[in-house]
Design brief:
Layout (H helix, E strand, L loop, with lengths): L27 H17 L3 E3 L9 E4 L6 E12 L2 E5 L9 E5 L2 E7 L5 E7 H14 L10 H11 L10
Antiparallel strand pairs: 1-2, 2-3, 3-6, 4-5, 6-7
Bound molecules: cobalt (II) ion.
Cobalt (II) ion (CO) binds next to helix 2.
Length: about 170
């Protein structure tokens, strides 16, 4: 099974820029993937991980901000309240920290590992992590929140190819 080869993808890897597809039903295959994702997240000392970060473009995220492992499939933010700025890092963009303004509270819908519909309000670091991981499902990274000059510096550091005249 190719899951045995799952590894953390770093900035510059195309999988990080693809839009992830929704999961029709969570089965044994998805649960194996989620277990591997958790292994990688804990081994890397992260508090969240999205499937594209291990090269799987499916809408699956895991988060553990110190209150146990949370798994969210097909997560969607339905409501937002307030905003706050905090410095964020990302396992796929090591040693880069970016101040990011995000909603203070979000109402999230999705399904859990047993295919049950779930919906809840999330705030503090948990709410922020959910927003960060959902960005990954859309192909968005923390580097997209910085100005062009800083982004180019980061690109150089990670040797990310930049098309001439196209500072994406
Ligand atoms: Co990240």
């Amino acid at each position: 099974m190719k899951e045995t080869k799952l590894k953390l993808r770093l900035y510059g890897d195309k999988a990080l820029r693809k839009k992830s597809l929704s999961v029709k039903s969570v089965g044994a295959h998805e649960r194996t993937l989620l277990d591997k994702m958790a292994e990688i997240m804990y081994a890397s000392g992260g508090i969240g991980l999205a499937a594209p970060q291990v090269g799987i473009n499916k809408q699956m995220i895991i988060i553990d901000v110190g209150q146990g492992l949370n798994t969210l499939i097909n997560p969607k933010i339905k409501k937002k309240k307030g905003s706050w700025v905090m410095q964020e890092g990302c396992l796929s963009v090591p040693e880069v920290y970016v101040d990011i303004k995000r909603a203070k509270k979000v109402f999230v819908e999705g399904i859990d590992v047993a295919n049950n519909k779930i919906a809840f309000w999330a705030d503090e670091i948990f709410g922020r992590a959910i927003q960060h991981e959902i960005d990954h499902l859309r192909g968005k990274l923390i580097v997209d929140y910085v100005n062009l000059v800083k982004r180019l510096t980061i690109k150089r550091k990670f040797k990310v190819k930049t098309k001439k005249g196209l500072l994406s």
